[in-house]
Amino acid sequence: MNGIERIKAALAGEPVDNIPVMLHNFMMVAKEAGITMAQYRGNPGAIADAFIRSVEKYEYDGVLVDIDTVTLAGACGVKVDLPENEPARIHRGMLRSWDDFPDLPAVDVSKYKYVQVWCEAVRILVDSIGHEIYIRGNCDQAPFSLASMIRGMENWMTDLYMTEEKLLFELLDYSMEATSQFIKLMAQTGCHMTSNGDSMAGPEMIPADMFVKYSKPYIRGLANLAHKLGMDYVIHICGNTDIIIKEMIETGADGLELDYKTDTRKAYDLMKNRVTFFGNVDPSGVLALGTPELVRERTIELLDVFSKTNRFVLNAGCAIPPFAPEENIKMFIKTAREYRLK
Fold first, then answer.
1. Which range of residues forms the domain containing residue 98?
2. What is the DSSP letter of 242?
3. Which of 123, 195, 216, 246 has the lowest tally of Cβ within 10 angstroms?
4. Tens-place pLDDT, residues 22-51
């Protein structure tokens, strides 16, 4: 089986010859290619070349194309800081008062340089290696997290308790338009899957009932949109997601990419034969800072749980730091390749 076949089988709950592997490794990819994050984010050819080199080096099944977590915020008009050697970031939202909401610019993310770069990089990868390697074109933030960036995190968290729901949903709808536009553009690249992150909607940030009210319906809408456009869909939420896994399953996403803080046995019990688990070895404490022996130990612990279902793709629990040692990544993948499926 090739990478596409393995991951497609995992999404369908069908048997595979080896554990499929997809890495969340965009920062490491840039570092190993010898380019800065500024060079990476500004050049689609450089992004594609860096991932192709990485696939050739480590021989994994699926590429997750990411650039940063603030591209959609920038496309909506939030001021973005673009460090030379780190992913882009924001320091404050642009909607300082709800009185200014009617004056927000109409959403058209297609005009934003880094959305264009992102999509073009995915298109190049699809054309170059997409016949064998599964290509996941991530589309940055889901609406709840994007709204928090537009409004500003502190303001948004206060708004959830102090502002009328009508305004909250209007900003969420505005954010939904931006994310949906990105997904529609990504579909034109021919990639196999798209995804979003919504970590600001996780239980470590807001109560579970707020996730149900303000995040879940929008994720369901994004999953439906991706499916209509012929793509599989994954949602990623950082932190311990134990108490919302059932709700995440009900979004209709094909896969849940969960943080290493989530209880893997609980995730298995809830997700087996229903939705595919992506994850979730600790990217920092294990893959970046651990020894190859620790990587092997933690990977086997995870595989011992999820090898009982076909719905599993091995990944880190979140983005792998750029300084993760080569030998650790090789051990991560070697362990999966040599693991005897039960």
1. 3-338
2. G
3. 246
4. 999 999 999 999 999 999 999 999 999 999
